[in-house]
Structures are given as C-alpha cells and as structure tokens.
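Progress note, sequence design subtask.
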C-alpha cells in the first residue's frame, strides 16, 4: 500500500507500536534467524537490488545531484556484500535485551537492579543512503525495536527493493512483517506528520545534511538524535612522525571523501610545516584533492605548490566538504590547534599525530568530540569498525548517546526491585 495521507502514516505508527510489543519478548534465536535470513537474501538477490539502484542513480545524476550524495546513493556488489556481512555480524553480537546492568542489595533487604529493555519504535528520516535501510532495521530488530523508515525520493526504488527483502527475512522466520514500516512516498507533508507521532515513535534519527538535521531538531515532538555533521580535523604536531602523518592524512581525506568522518582540515605545527607540508600536499594533490591553504601554508609550499593549492577564505574553516577538498592551516602550537578545533569543530571526530605522550594526552583530555584519535585516521569512526556490527547513526550530541550508535544505544532500562515483604515506614 502506498502511503498517501497523514492517516496512512498514522496507521504505520500504530502497526509499528503493536509490533514493538511483540519484538520486546522475541527470543534471541528468532531475532538472529531473521538477520541470517536477511544476510542470505542480500547476497542472493543482488541483481534485483542493483537494478533498482541503477535506475535511482541514473535519475539522480540526470537531476544534477551532488557527487558526494551520488557516491552514498550508489550500490555495488561489494557494498551489498559488505552490508550482508555487517548484518551477519549483528546476529553474532550478544543480545542486549534483558542484560542486568548492575545489582545492589540495600540495607533494608531490597535487591535493586537495572535491566535493559528496548526503546520501542525507532523512526529514521534519511537522504540518499540505501544502506541505512538495512543497517537501522538490523540493529533495531536485534535490540527488540520496531522501526519506521523514510528514505529520500532519490532512493525510492532501491529502498523499496531492500524493504521487500527485510520483510521476507521476517516472514521466513515467522516474525511479524510489521516490525519494519516503510514510508514509500516522498511527499514532504508525510515527514511533517511523522515528526508529530510522538505517541508511537520513541526515538527519531535523521541521517543526512545539515538542513535535514536542523529541520528535525526544530520540528520533532519526540526525542531525536540530531548530530552527525562531521567537520573533522587532523593536527600534525611538532613531534609527529611525518611519514605516518602523510599516510594518515591521505587516508582520512581520500579513502572515501563523501562520508561524515572524512578529514576536512589539516592543522600543521609550524616547526614541521616546512618539511611535512610539501609531502602531504604532494600525496593529496596526486589523488586530486584541492587544497585551500592559509597564507603561511601557501608561502611554505612556494613555487612548488601543486596546481590544486589555492588561497583559503574564512568560510573554509568549519566547512564539511564531503568531497576531494581540504583546508590547510599552519599553527604555532598545540594550544592554537585546540583553539581552532574548539571554534570550528562539530564534535564528530578529531585526530592528533604525535610521538609526544604529553601532547597526545592533552589532546585526548581537552578536545570535546564524540571520537578523539591519536595516530589514526578519523575514517574509523563507524559502528562496524568499532565492533558494533553497524550503526543507526553517529551522534555528536551528548544525550542519550554519543558517537556511533549500536545495539545498546537503542535500549533503555527498567528498575527491577525484589523484596521479601518490606513496607516503607
């Protein structure tokens, strides 16, 4: 059934809520069976999914979609196989539901504990990212939550094909197909209605650009995780191993520039800039990266600066490029680097390259971000890479979750109190 009216989307909410009551009691074996079914379906039905995705891709490209979004939209056999592997990993992870977080025996003989329970219904509004359809479903199912998914119009065919596989995975395991609800109509008024369904949706997770995240933050009537914008810095310290720095900076920018954990700004200590900057610039330019350099960086690069090096302007600091573009700034000290990150960072992922333990520890202590790295690429900020199997999203806020959100971030807890006839005086 095509979702056409606010009454239709309310019906999806009711169905998801009813399914969530059943999922909360679903045995781990049954949840895992759904996920294993889905992993196999993703492998055996690649042709159908890829054909649908190719139609979405052709139409989006013809409409002038930005290259960074086209990259996120595009599915390949390898990407689908990786998604299937992530779902299989989620099946292998411990079930968080029912976990006792802590137990305390009180002086009056009462025994209190906190036990993990599902949130209930998780909604997600996302843009050109068909893999999100599978990731969110898998994590919600394993954590006992129903989900309501609303992808972008650019991926309507891809998502429709994927949701069909999700529902088959459920039905083949004897689990209600209502565990996943899909808004198959890109009409924006349905998004407005979804944001008002706080009686059915317990948590909303937007996945997309700043405008989408801001819209959800301003209009959602239920709790929402409104982070995910990644303005990521790598600071090359005076005590950096420059060979390591070149490799890390290149990976953080070039491996996949369209994702939120990709490097945006390189900060280089003045004492190593003369040696390190030309090395980094050469490697980045060879991969087609446009470098927006401050005046000191351009001066150091001098006449040998790559053709892709141009003067930076104020808008380059704090910019999430999502493309083969990076800002470059020379700083006089660790203090200057920390101040720059505090001013322009988004609280996503920040890195320092250094062999100085004191500098590393200070960076770890003082940088306020969801993920802080020493001598590693920021591209590791990912649920799969952190051992979570997959991620619902990456939170850059501090309540109730921070960083990649996996199974435990989709749970709450209840207090369980066991007595022997105690009454309160």
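Output:
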């Amino acid at each position: 059934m095509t979702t056409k009216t606010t009454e239709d989307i309310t019906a999806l909410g009711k169905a998801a809520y009813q399914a969530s009551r059943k999922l909360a009691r679903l045995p781990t074996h049954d949840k895992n069976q759904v996920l294993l079914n889905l992993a196999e379906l993703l492998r055996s039905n690649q042709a159908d999914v890829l054909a649908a995705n190719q139609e979405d891709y052709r139409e989006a490209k013809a409409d002038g979609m930005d290259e960074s979004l086209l990259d996120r939209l595009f599915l390949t056999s390898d990407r689908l196989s990786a998604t299937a592997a992530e779902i299989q990993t989620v099946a292998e992870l411990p079930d968080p539901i029912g976990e006792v977080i802590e137990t305390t025996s009180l002086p009056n003989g009462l025994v209190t504990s906190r036990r993990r329970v599902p949130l209930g219904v998780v909604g997600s509004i996302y843009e050109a990212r068909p893999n999100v359809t599978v990731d969110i479903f898998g994590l919600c199912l394993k954590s006992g939550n129903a989900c309501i998914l609303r992808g972008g119009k650019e991926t309507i065919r891809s998502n429709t094909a994927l949701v069909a596989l999700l529902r088959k995975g459920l039905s083949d395991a004897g689990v209600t197909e209502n565990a996943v609800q899909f808004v198959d109509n890109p009409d924006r008024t349905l998004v407005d209605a979804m944001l008002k369904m706080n009686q059915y949706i317990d948590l909303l997770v937007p996945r997309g650009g700043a405008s989408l995240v801001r819209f959800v933050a301003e209009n959602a009537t239920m709790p929402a995780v409104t982070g995910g914008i990644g303005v990521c810095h790598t600071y090359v310290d005076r005590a950096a191993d420059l060979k390591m720095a070149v490799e890390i900076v290149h990976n953080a920018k070039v491996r996949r520039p369209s994702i939120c954990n990709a490097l945006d700004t390189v900060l280089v200590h003045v004492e190593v800039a003369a040696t390190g900057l030309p090395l980094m610039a050469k490697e980045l330019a060879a991969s087609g990266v446009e470098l927006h350099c401050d005046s000191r960086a351009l001066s150091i690069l001098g006449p040998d600066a790559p053709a892709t090096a141009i003067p930076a302007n104020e808008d380059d600091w704090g910019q999430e490029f999502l493309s083969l573009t990076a800002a470059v700034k020379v700083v006089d000290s660790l203090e200057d680097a920390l101040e720059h990150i505090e001013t322009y960072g988004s609280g996503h992922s920040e890195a320092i390259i250094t062999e100085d333990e004191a500098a590393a520890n200070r960076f770890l202590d003082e940088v306020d971000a969801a993920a802080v790295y020493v001598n590693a690429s920021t591209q590791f900020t990912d649920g799969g890479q952190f051992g979570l199997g997959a991620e619902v999203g990456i939170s850059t806020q501090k309540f109730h979750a921070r960083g990649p959100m996996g199974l435990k971030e989709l749970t709450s807890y209840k207090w369980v109190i066991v007595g022997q006839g105690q009454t309160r005086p």
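DSSP finds 14 helices and 16 strands in the chain. Work on this subtask will continue into the next period as scheduled.
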